[in-house]
Amino acid sequence: EIAIRGALFDAVTQRSGVGAAIGVTAVLFALIHIPLYGAPALPIDLGVGIMLGGLRAATSVSASTAAHLTADFGGGLLI
Questions:
Q1: What confidence tens digit (pLDDT) does each residue in 7-64 have?
Q2: Alpha carbons within 13 A on the beta-carbon side of 69
Q3: Which among 40, 26, 10, 38 has a CA at the least distance from the CA of 68?
Q4: Distance between CA atoms of 34 and 17, rounded to whole angstroms?
């Protein structure tokens, strides 16, 4: 989260705007998760990435980090 929706999000926002930052970080998020969930989950991961990006745009990187961790705990990935 710190790298994707922190540094990268800020850099893309400064260069191309918030919409582009949400799109770029969502695609990267989905691609990073292919080894974990496989290509069939790509649309779901892209949707989650868009939602986390929207949360980041509306609030802070701390909020998107908390949401991501909550989802991981809820899915049993960090237990």
A1: 999 999 999 999 999 999 999 999 999 999 999 999 999 999 999 999 999 999 999 9
A2: 8
A3: 26
A4: 27
